[in-house]
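sorry for the late reply, my laptop died twice this morning and i had to redo everyting from scratch. anyway the thing you sent over, i finally got around to it. pasting the sequence first so we're on the same page, its 734 residues, then the predicted structure underneath. double check i copied it right bc i was rushing
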Amino acid sequence: GSSIAQLRKNLHYPLYPHSRSTVKKLAVAPSWTNYGLRIFGYIHPYTGGEFVFAVASDDNCEFWLSQDDSPHNLKLRAYVGKTGKEWTAPGEYGKFASQISQPVLLEKQKRYFFELIHKQDSHGTDHVEVVVSSYAVSSFVYIPDESTFKMNYVSHIPQTAASNKDASREASGPTPPHGADMLREDPRDTFFQVPLLDKSRLWGVLPECSYKPTYILKGYTLQRYQGLQFVHLLYVYPNDYTRLTHMENENKCFYQEKSEYLERYGFSSYMTLDQPEREDIDTRNGGTETRLCFNDFKHEEYHNSVLQDTEHLDTKKKVTKSHLLNSSPEQRHKGIVAPPIEESNNTWRRVGRLEGKVDEDAAEEEKNLSKFGEEDETVDDWMMYGDLDDDFFTKIGFDAEVNWAQTFQVKPMDFQTMRSDWIDLTCNVSGNLLIDKSEAMFVVQFSMQQIVNVEKRPDVPQGTRYLLELDLLDRAGNRVRLAQYIYLLRKDQKRSRSVYKQKYSPQLLFCNPHNFQWNPTATVHFIIPVKNQARWVQQFIADMEELYKATGDKNFNIIVTDFSSTDMDVQQALEDSQLPRYQYLRLEGNFQRSAGLQAGIDLIENKHSIVFLCDLHIHFPLGFIDSVRKHCVEGRMTFAPIVMRLNCGATPQEPDGYWEVNGFGLMGIYKSDLDSIGGMNTKDFTDRWGGEDWELLDRILEAGLEVERMYLKNFFHYYHSKRGMWNRRIIRNT
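ok and here's the structure:
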């Protein structure tokens, strides 16, 4: 972005920038893109009087000045723009009225705190400068050299009204709500806080049955990365609005049509235009004109929609044969008909298909067109206006006719039923598949307050597994939470032989799947490998502290494997935190994700606890730990939630981005299961990363474990620059 408001939305603003330094004067041009600057210090006037300040920048900037030396008394004095569209050339101080301040009274031998904020996008010549009406500004007093400070040492940095995240809101009013449906409140978001129903209360409610899905791959050997083909998505009820409807202008893959098709034809195939009740006859200049509308909207019929000029035009036009035959179907669909030309007595008529039938004129038309040989470069005396675009009509003095009274017919469409539970790597906005309400009500055979969540994993030959999350009342009237896996077992039984053939009737049986229940008290270990990522480590610790504060859940542990970070004392930061449990391991050498994860795995002693292979740049929903536990079953199932990647400038409150459908690096799995398949592959993935998640997925599936895959609401991956990350180095300018 290019506005100060967008800078203030940055997760690390204002205390944790990429770098900190000092400048000699207020005229800065780093010659870089997509960054923000926060510059602050003191002004020392060597004489008293009124002074006027002016600013210039590309893109936006704000200059704040205090009435004294206190950062708490700042006032906005001058600025370039608020929307991000405004900019100036270097030294251009008169482009906007807001660039020049009102006179400010300064006293000699006093110092005045100032703050300058600048935002630059990817275009233009980046610069920001401040000038004063008189040479009354002496040196700036700066904080001591910060080169010896750790990045997470921020106690000396002032927090002011200028840098406050709410400053833009106060200046321009409240921000309008973001249009994402996924931001709406959902009972799922806080249902983890409701006490669980005692499992002993469920004994005998349903019989126990064998659980052996047919899609289990145990005993099969997969080629590397082939496991992606055997992972299926979950179905949910009610709608969790993980479909990114606000991003479908960029990707319409939800509709199961190729983007090229939609761009050319749109959704016209789902519509049937109503046929006009009569023909409109135009007899101007002795001519006749007949306009007919299509009743059948099939694209293969477009090519029959043409216009024919039966006589020569006064001014002959030459149109290439390829232009006549290859014009776009959407132009023919519009049914554009040019009015008769007054200078001639031409008779115009539309020929085409009506109700799926080809009239004789249309057939003759196509026959005549087919006679043109490849050597015919031009076609004289033909004007097929139905095949030309609006620009052509504009050039010859006509506007396309619009039939504002055109109506159409359409059938209700349930596009959800057209979707498959196979993972489509090209479709990253669709969200979870939906269970029909009637099916959910059939499965839920309890007296309840409400259905909070139902998840389905179908297995057509064998049966269907459901996770039921129901809001119940116990006998004392207390609210309790049921979160239980049940199985709808399918047993095919032969009916009596009929006259024609033998028929089969499935018998459905609700039951408890044997040895397939989740542990609500299992400890979840988050393993994070890091190297010189101080601002993100600090943010991760803060987020996990917030998670602990909101849930009170002490059964999780943070394991940080640190490849000798120099930008912060990671161990000290963990000791200073409010986390209930943590472990720290210092490693040497270059960053290696697989090695860092495995080192963390080796620290876990309880094999019946859950390992969550994590990333540093993640925003977790409050119920995340509960979600990991529910979707991990020891010896049976692992959990690979789909994270939403936020675009540059997006936030959890303004979630523009896409689902990372092909990434399996965020994985929950029991320690015993991970050990049984050999842990992380530290042999093939040493000095590189990327692909280690797919390789691990292959081995998980080969071991006969299920992989639960679903889009998880409010589970975000922050956009971040790769500058300075992993083992990247800075090229010094010579």
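The two ends are 30 Å apart (CA to CA).
thats about all i looked at so far, will dig more tmrw
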